[in-house]
Queue: 3 jobs
Job 1
Amino acid sequence: MSRELVNEICAAQPGAEWSDPWGGGHDCWKVAGKIFALTGTVGTHVTVKTESAEMASFLIETGVADRAPYMHASWVALPLDAAPDELAHRIRHSYRLVRTALSRKAQAALPPL
């Protein structure tokens, strides 16, 4: 899967916004100002949130993902050449986790799911 396809999946999420907050070519995808997916300047992985540090450890131990540098233990880095459905599933799941953690007011301001 390419970085462009990752960006397409991210852009398709309701209320998703792109930014490059650190400069230099990052693809940082946010919903209501909160990151749900991030591709670094090198662009070999997409970093996404999982429901827990335990799930992240499981994905890392089984070889599905790597530890996400600079992020909390519940985040993982998936290689861009991972199975397309796994990558799409993890990006959408990360989006939903971040979106549901928003305040009711922030969620109400977003387009419907």
Job 2
Amino acid sequence: MELLKLFLSFLKIGAFTFGGGYAMVPLIQNEAIEVHGWLTNKEFIDILAIVEMTPGPIAINSATFLGYKVGGILGSILATTAVVLPSFVIIILIAHFLSKFKDSPYVDWAFIGIRPVVLGLIISASISVARNAFIDFKSVIIGVVLFYLISFKNIHPILSIVLAGVAGVLLF
């Protein structure tokens, strides 16, 4: 029964999230913590850190990792399949009908309307993660310094992860 819940949760996440992995974070968080209790807030932040450090899309990495935690290898397969299945089906349908509707102003207007929602979901995920990641003043300093280095000094994200890890070891 838990595997069916896992599959349906990630199918819903994959079907109703536009904007990629970051936009999925609030939905994954809600399903994993609030709805099913598969994770605590701390575990979710830890998983989020792991999936952002590993290659691949956040949604797929999250589904694979959480699926494994809930149901082992079969759970990983089911959650990963469920999260990509809606996109796969939608892309197949879009490819089939694209030539017919590609110049439609309604399609353009729909995407213009969806863009702000995607931004809102990403901001919501960022605020939610920040609430749980910033546990004290030292963690806020690490976050602010690395945000500055990434955003304005263009340091590589991998280097920022290493620097954050070193700062964590030194400060905590």
Job 3
Amino acid sequence: MKKTFVLVVLFILPIVAYLFFASGVNNFGKLPTLTENVIDISTIDDGNTFKNKITVLGFLGNNIELKKGNAFNLNQKIYKPFYQFNDFQFVMIVPKGSEEKVEELKSELGGLVDIEKWKFVFGDEDQIKNIFNSLKTDVSLDEHLGTSYVFIIDKDKNLRGRKKDEDVGTKYGFNTTSVAELNNKMEDDVKIILAEYRLALKKNNADR
């Protein structure tokens, strides 16, 4: 009996543990799709697109001076750790007429890190609302056509998020006013979607 018990402990339990954690990794390795076929940013600016990019999408509004703190939080907590990954970008949609304010913001952000992958796209009210509404979230734009929330868009133009967030249930976006939310939730979700595409790439290469 003792030999059998020792054999179980030494050989069987590690296999069971491995299978348990392996299945957990598989379940954890996908960030849920919440909305499919988000309107592409190319409808506003044909030099930019969501296709084949992992995008953090934001709507700054025309009161950019009041959104600088949000942009700095996002820059430090999310952009800076991940911007060197291939196919990763930030897209900020801004109302036309805000070009000068955007240049000022870019200058300040650029003092902290290379902001090559920060993309600013200018649109009119209808264009901005069309893209925002296509996200189909529980968040609203304010009177300045902005929001403090940002959203993760995958390479197929789908909105990714959480279906079972412990605080709000379905979580469509992340509040850039909250450093804790960026640290504790958004950073994790960005890691998941980046890992998802890395694993898919490795599998495709292995199958060739």
